[in-house]
Amino acid sequence: MQKVLVVCGPTATGKTKLALRLAKKINGELISADSRQVYRGMDIGTGKELPVNLKPQISNLKYRGEPIVFYSILRVKVWGYDLVSPTRQFNVAQYKRFADKILKSIVDRGKLPIIVGGTGLYIKAVVDDISTINVPANRSLRRSLANKSVDELYNLLSRFDPIKSASLNTSDRKNPRRLIRAIEVVSYGEKGRRSLKKDSKFDTLFIGLTLPKHIRNDNINKRVHKRLHQGIIAEIKKLLNSGVKWSDQSMCSIGYKELRGYFESKLTLEEVVKKWKDAEHNYAKRQITWFKRDQRINWFDVSKKDYLRNMENMVEKWYKS
RNA sequence: GUCGAGGUGGCGGAGCGGACAAUCGCACCAGACUGUAAAUCUGGCGGCCGAAAGACCUACGUAGGUUCGAAUCCUACCCUCGACA
Question: A39: which of A53, A86, A128, A181 fits an S-S bond (Cβ 3.0–4.6 Å)?
């Protein structure tokens, strides 16, 4: 069975660095599972591990008619950066199509695919698949539903798909985005749903990286300042000048959306930095909540002395088996 | 020093005699998640007991007072801010 290594966990734990190290050791290539690093020109704020002046290389693979680029970092190929323009929408389905293709290509070349990132849903889509992933967005439906209250949406869903509506938890019942998506899925009809195979087609090893909260938050705070020094403000200026709008999906990324208040002179840099840090802390928490549920993940506390040796032992043992 | 505004939970900020342990936002804690996922959404959030209902305690600058009852009214004092000196 095809082996796939997954390196996941909350932000600011050093996933990419670790994955690069492992890739060198066991001849792997990285596939970034990160919903923001897909955007071109958003480098500093999304934390792409790019050495200065490193240029992307063009592969012979295509995605939506365009050649897929990759970066060669420490002689390891890294895929998943710079997939689309930041003026575009992006979603799991697109990611899945891209990742499946790259994964196959890595395997074909006899290398080990290493999926690395903090976007749990993206990892899930590749490793476990998502049954309704092929139901496309229905713009006009979404538009017509946009102003409805959650109760109206819920009632609508109940009418079309009572089983689905009854199965929703109290949180999702009040989540307009999910309700609209659920309606979108029913209205697409049965052809949109496919049953998933119970058994994964991969032999997957999950490595999860953690840090005690105070260290993690400290890392995050330092990283915020680092990114400011690296020039995220200039990066945003450049994006705006090139036609990216604050309302674009890409710009609602942490770091960017907080800086908006500063750009519009509504907040001081200090206030913005505080918000930015808070947003990162909250994000890390959400990631932890997501990943915690996955029993397959082998967790390693990065602040512990022997974590590297223990983890590498585990990976090597799995790799050779 | 005088005049004016104000002092409320970790912070911002409502409340201005009973329905107030105190709207709401932030932070914080916990959770959800199947095409926006760095998104979106849910619950909790003074203390103590409790599964819960609920009880009790301590709280709206400090000290008194009025009242059956005060974060809300009165008095004095302390502090902050603005204006005038």
Answer: A86
